[in-house]
Amino acid sequence: MIGKSVPRVDAYEKVTGRAKFTEDLLPKRCLVAKVLHATIGNGIVKSIDTSEAEIMEGVVKVVTFHDVPDHCYPTPGHPWSVELAHQDVADRNLLTGRVRYYGDDIAAVVAEDEIIASRALKKIKVEYEEYPVEIHPRKSMYGSKPPIHFDKKDNVLARSNYFIGDVDKGMEEAETVVKGTYKTPIVQHCHIENPISYAYMEKGRIVVVTSTQIPHIVRRVIGQALGIPWGNVRVIKPYIGGGFGNKQDVLYEPLNAFLTTQVGGRPVKLDISREETFCNTRTRHAIEFDLAAGVDKEGKLIAKDMHSYSNQGAYASHGHAIAANGLTSWRLQYACPNIRGEAYTIYTNTPVGGAMRGYGIPQVCFAIECFMDDVAEAIHMDPLEFRRKNLIEGYYEDRYLKPIAANTNGIFECLKKGAEYIHWDEKRKKYAKQTGAVRRGVGMALFSYKTGVWPISLEIAGARLSLNQDGSVQLQLGATEIGQGADTVFSQMVAETLHTDMAHVHIQTVQDTDVSPFDTGAYASRQSFVTGTAVKHCAEILRDKILAYAKTLLPEIDTRELSLRDNWIWADEEQVISLAALAEESYYSLTNSSVLTAEVSEQVKKNTIATGCCFAEVEVDIKLGKIKILHIINVHDSGKLLNPQLAEMQVHGGMSMGMGYGISEQLILDEKTGRPLNGNLLDYKLMTMLDTPDIKAGFVEMDDPMGPYGNKALGEPPAIPSAPAIRNAVLHATGVAFNENPLTPQRLIDGFKKAGLI
Amino acid sequence: MIGKSVPRVDAYEKVTGRAKFTEDLLPKRCLVAKVLHATIGNGIVKSIDTSEAEIMEGVVKVVTFHDVPDHCYPTPGHPWSVELAHQDVADRNLLTGRVRYYGDDIAAVVAEDEIIASRALKKIKVEYEEYPVEIHPRKSMYGSKPPIHFDKKDNVLARSNYFIGDVDKGMEEAETVVKGTYKTPIVQHCHIENPISYAYMEKGRIVVVTSTQIPHIVRRVIGQALGIPWGNVRVIKPYIGGGFGNKQDVLYEPLNAFLTTQVGGRPVKLDISREETFCNTRTRHAIEFDLAAGVDKEGKLIAKDMHSYSNQGAYASHGHAIAANGLTSWRLQYACPNIRGEAYTIYTNTPVGGAMRGYGIPQVCFAIECFMDDVAEAIHMDPLEFRRKNLIEGYYEDRYLKPIAANTNGIFECLKKGAEYIHWDEKRKKYAKQTGAVRRGVGMALFSYKTGVWPISLEIAGARLSLNQDGSVQLQLGATEIGQGADTVFSQMVAETLHTDMAHVHIQTVQDTDVSPFDTGAYASRQSFVTGTAVKHCAEILRDKILAYAKTLLPEIDTRELSLRDNWIWADEEQVISLAALAEESYYSLTNSSVLTAEVSEQVKKNTIATGCCFAEVEVDIKLGKIKILHIINVHDSGKLLNPQLAEMQVHGGMSMGMGYGISEQLILDEKTGRPLNGNLLDYKLMTMLDTPDIKAGFVEMDDPMGPYGNKALGEPPAIPSAPAIRNAVLHATGVAFNENPLTPQRLIDGFKKAGLI
C-alpha cells in the first residue's frame, strides 16, 4: 500500500460537503462570544466601562482584563518540557489592560447571538494612555519606555549565536568577500477556515471543540492559562479547514474555555473574522538578514557570516525557535570551514509572529539563496555551478545537533532534474544579454529541511489499533489530519504492515484528548515520520498478537512459520485461517476470547533531512513591474513517497504559497499604530488560480533509513524555495537584485528605476 | 473509595438537564423516518401501494418489505457465538410482508419532518390476507396454519428439560403432594426515554447514534441485518433514559441504518412513540407454570416438578433463554433430591417477549414463591419456617453449570432482617383470624440470582486507562451507564485500586464502538462483576506501570518497596515523588517519555449467586378489591456494596417495578387481533409516587470471593421478590390464594366472590 496513489480516505466526505467541521457541530442554543480589541498600538487601558453593554437584552456576560486570571501562559504548539530552561515563554494573559499591539484583546462579550454580541462591543467605553509605537525590530532592540514585556529594556526576546572555525580569518583569506542584506515580509497563513471553537462544561470539566492542529497541546495550555488541572480539560478536533502553522498555536481556545466557566458551563462559540485572523492570530515572522561570505579562487565558500533580526511582534508565541531554526540551517548543506551565526528575536508593537509552514526556513532560504546567486554573480560563476561546487554530497550531519542528519541526500539528483526541466544551460545563455521592456530569465534555489524536531525538542507519538470482528482494524491517533492527507497515509501504513487493503483500515478522524493516544500533533513535517514510526510499531505489535492468537487456534501448526498476508493467516505457503474467522474467534470464543488491540506511546529519537530545489522561468515586464511565471518546478528528495498523488498535491500547494511569498503577499502595517492596512482577502494578495501558472512537481525517491517507510519531510518543504528561485530568475532576466520579497509591481518599478532600466 | 456513598459522577449533568441524550445530539437537517405497522394480527400483505406517499412534497423515500435484504437476523443482546448451536435464532427481517402480530413492520417513510412522515404513512394503501390469530401459548403449541415461523408446525420455538433423581418416586413417597398453576402477565419496561436513534454515513460506513444498553452488539446485528462487514458500522451510545432490558435488544437500529443507505447517507432519525414502544419493541414474557411438590412429614421438599409455557410472541428475540433461566432457578437454593423441570417457549401472534430486568426470574419467582406459601399452608406450617427448613445454608452450586454458585450465601441473614423489620412472628399471629371487609396480612418471598451469564454464554469485558499529565486518569469502557450508576462505581473501582480520589478519575460516558474497548454491555447484573473484574485488572496494570516508571526516575531507590497512595509514590513510608510530577515526566521527559496507558480485554470465567427477600405488610379492602401496602422491605445479599446510597436507590427502583408487577401492571391484548388495548402510560397502570408506600432497603454485606471488590449482582434482583411477597400477604390477610398477577381490583373482586368473601 505504501507508494500507491490511493484516494484520500476523506475525499468523498469533503467533496460532498458532509465532512463535519467545528461550525457544523455547534450545539443547540450556543452562546456567541466576541472579543473587544484595543484601538491603539501601545499603551494601557486607563478605564473601561462595560455598564451599557451589560444591561443590553441578550447580553449574558461581559468580562474584561480585570476578570481573568493574572498569571501568564505560553501559547506555542511545542511539546511541554519539565525543564524550566526548555519551557516556552509565558507572556500572555487571556485579556490585557497593557496593550502591546493594535488589536490586543482587552474584553469579551458573551451574548445570545452574533448581532447582540457585536452591538455590545460597541457599547464598551475605553480610555487609553498611549505610548510610542515601534514596529521595526532593529529599532525596538535598542529599547522602549516602558519595555514591551517584563523588564526587557532592549525588547530582545532572545539571542543566540555560534562560531565554527574562524570567520574573520576566513574572510581575510578569501579571494572575494560578498555582503548583502535581505528582508522578508510579514505574511499570513490564509487557511480557508478561520479559527473557531466552542466550549462548554461537562461533569465539572471544560470541553473545547476547536479547529486546531494540536489538540493535546491546546488541552495543556488551557490548563495553564486557567490555572486548573490539565486533566479537567477535554479538547476535540473535528475536520479543519487548513492551518499551515497558525493552528499550531493556542489561539482563542483558553479565552473560550474561560468564558464558558463564566456562564455556568453553557456552550459558548468563539469564532473570529478574517480581519481578526490577520491581526490577532499569528503571522510569519518578518526577518532581516545581514549576510557575508568569503570565497576562494575556485569559488569555494571559506567563510560565512549571518546576523538576523526577527520581528516577534507583541507576544512571544513560538518566539526565538523560528529565528534559531533559520540560524541552524545556515551551517547545513553548503560546505564551509568557517561559519558564524547570530540571531535576534525582538518584541515590537506588531501582530504576533508564530509558526508557519517552513518555520523560519522560507525566510532564511530566501536570504541564503538570493545571496548565493549574488555571490555567484560577484565571482562571475553560473549560480547552479556555484552551488554544486559548494554543496555537500551524501551524508552530513549537524555539528551541534547530531541526530539531525542527511541520512540520504538527493540534492544533486534534484538539481539535475530541475535543470533539465527548465533547460537551464540553454536558457542561462539564451537570456544572458537581453534588451527591451520584456525580458526572460531562469533562476533556482534550493533548501534542506529537517523532518521532525528532535533533538531540539521532544518527539513522542501514540497509536492504538483494535481488530474488528470482520478482520478490519480501527486506528486511533493523536496526530491530526489538517488537510494534508495524514489520515490517508497513516491508513496506508497500517495496511502495508498488516498486509491488507485500505477497506480494512478505519481511521478515527476526530481527535479527542479524552480518548485519543497522546501525540503533539501536526507541525514541523513530523507526522508521517514520527507518528508513522509509532503507527508501524503498533501495527507490528498487532500483527504479532494476531499470529500468536493464530497459534492457539492451530495447535497442529508447530514448526511452520505463520505469516499474515491478504487477510489470511498463512503457514508457510498454505492459507490456514482467514483473518476474519480468527477475529471473530477472538471476540467470541468460549475458551479463549480476548479482543486483540495494540497501543504504543513512543518517543522517537531520530531525525533526518529532506532536500529539494525550485527552478523557475519568468518573464518580466519592466515597465509594468509585472512578473509572469512561465515555468516552475519543485524537485524534492523526501525519501520514499508514501502516496505519490498526495505528495504531488502537497508540492502544488506549497509552491502556490511560495510563489505568493515571492511576488504578491505581505501584510502591510500602519507605521504609526502597527495596524494592518490590508488584513483581508481582498487587499492581501493571495495567489489565486488566475495568478497560478502550470506548476510541476518532481521527485527523487531514495529510501531513507530513518523514515519508518523510507519517508522524509514533505509537509513544509514545498513552500520554501519558490520565492528565491523567482527572485533569482528576475535577477537573471533584468540584472537587478531585489533583496526583499515580495516582488510587487511597486517594488519592481522602484528597483528598475534605481537601476536605470526605466 | 469502594463502600462509600460518593455522589453520582453524572448527577450534576442530569439534574441540570445538561446531559446529552440522543435527541439532544441530532444533526442539523436530520430527516425523519416513520414505520408503517400492520393493522392485522396474522396474515400476509397481498399488495402495497406507496405511489401517493412517494409524490408528497417533503417525502424523500418510501421503502417496503420488498426493498429490504431478505435474509433473517437475530436481535437479542447476547454475545455472538462462533458455534452455530449457540447462535441466537434469526427470524426477523427489517420489514416484512408476512405479518405475525398486530403492528408488524411492513414499510417505512423518510421525510423532511415528522408531520410529513406521519401523513405519508396514511397515504400508503395495503391489502392483507388474514389468518387466524393465536395469542395463547398453550394453544399455539399445538400448531397453526400456516406456522408462525419456518416449518415449526407446533410453533414451539424451543423446549428444554432436566431430571434430577426420581420425581415420580419422590411424589409417591411424599406425605403431602401439592399442585398449583401460576400465571404471569405481559408487562413492559416503561423506561422514560422511548427508543430513539439516528443514522448517517461517513467515509462509506454507517454511523448509528442510539439509546441502547449494548452498542457493541448493535454494531454486530446491524452488520448481520444489512449483510455488510461489521467493521463498516459504528454505533455511538450517549446518555440514555433507562432501558431495563428493552434496550438490551436491537430494536429499530438496523432499519435506521438501512434507511440512511437509501437516502445517500443523509442523517435519518427514527424515534418511536410510547404506543409503538409497548407494541413494537419488547415485553416481559408472560409465562404459565404448572408446579407440583411432595413434602415429607417434617415438611421437607422431597420432589419438585415444573412445567412452564412461555409466550414468546411473534419473533424469537431473547427466545428460550428467559424460560430456560427460570428453569435453572427451579433447581437452585431449595434443597430437594428429586427435581424435574420442563420449559416451552412458544411463538404466538402477540408483541414480542424479550429481556427485562430479572430475565425470567420475576416470573418463576412469582410462581415458586406463591407455591411455597401454598405448600406451607397445605401442611399448616409457617411459610417462613417452611422455607428455612428447605433452604440450603452456605455454599451451593448448580448441578449442570458449576461455575454458577452461591460462593457466599446470606439468605438466612436476609430473612432474619426482613422478618424483624416486618414483625413477622407477631403479625402472622395477630392477623391469623380476621373478619371484616378490611384485613391485614404479612407475606414474604425470596429469590436467588446469578450475577453474570457465564458459563451459559460468554463473558468478556474491556477497559482502557490513560494517565493524564496531572496524575488523573481517563477511563474508557465498552460497558454502559444506563441510569444505574455504572459510571460512578467504575470510577470508584479505579480510585480504589489506584488509591486516589474521585476527582482524579475521568470516565468516558459515551460509548463509541470505534474507540471504546469491547464489552457486551449492560445486561444481566454483570457489569460491576464482569466489567469490574476487567477494570480492576486494568487499574492494577496501570499502577504497576506507574511504579515501574517511578523506578526509572528514582534509581537511588533500590531495595525499598514502592507503592502508590494518595497521589504520591511512596518508598516504604517516605513520599518520594508526586503522581502528577511523575505523570508530567512520562509525557515530557527528553530521555524517557512514554505516556502510561493500560488496556485489557478479559474473558471472565466465573459467576456467583446473589440472594435476597421481600417482606410486605398489606391492608386489603375486600369490597373495593384494593391493596394498600403498609410496609415493605427488600433485604439483599449482594456481597460488598460498592456504593451504599446507589445500592439503596437501585433497590427502591426495583421494588417499584416489583410492586407494579404485583398489583397493577399488565399489557392487555385484544383476543381477536392481539392488539394492545392499554399500550400507553395512561391506561397501563405503572406505579406512580402516589401509589408507592415508604419502601425500605436492607442489606446483608458479605465479601464475595468472586466479585472483584467482593460484590455480587444488584442490578436486577430488587425487581424480583415484591410481587409474590404481596400476593402472599394478601393470602395471609384474606385466605384467598391468587395465582396470577397483577392483583388488580377486578381480579381481587372476582377472587373474593369466588371464595365467598363478598
Characterize the structure shown.
Chains A, B: Its EC number is 1.17.1.4. Chains A, B: InterPro entries: Ald_Oxase/Xan_DH_a/b, Ald_Oxase/Xan_DH_a/b_sf, Ald_Oxase/xanthine_DH-like, AldOxase/xan_DH_MoCoBD1, AldOxase/xan_DH_MoCoBD2, AldOxase/xan_DH_Mopterin-bd_sf, XdhA_XDHase. Chains A, B: Keywords: Molybdenum, Oxidoreductase. The structure is a homodimer of 758-residue chains. By secondary structure, chain A is an alpha+beta fold. The first copy, chain A, is built from 19 helices and 31 strands. In chain A, the strands form eight sheets. Chain A has an eight-stranded mixed beta sheet with strand order 3-5-1-12-9-10-11-24, with helices on both faces. In chain A, strands 7-16-15-14-8 form a five-stranded mixed beta sheet, with helices on both faces. In chain A, strands 20-29-30-31 form a four-stranded mixed beta sheet, sandwiched between helices. In chain A, helix 15 packs across helix 16 (579-588) and helix 17 crosses helix 18 (722-734). Chain A is globular and about 90 Å long.
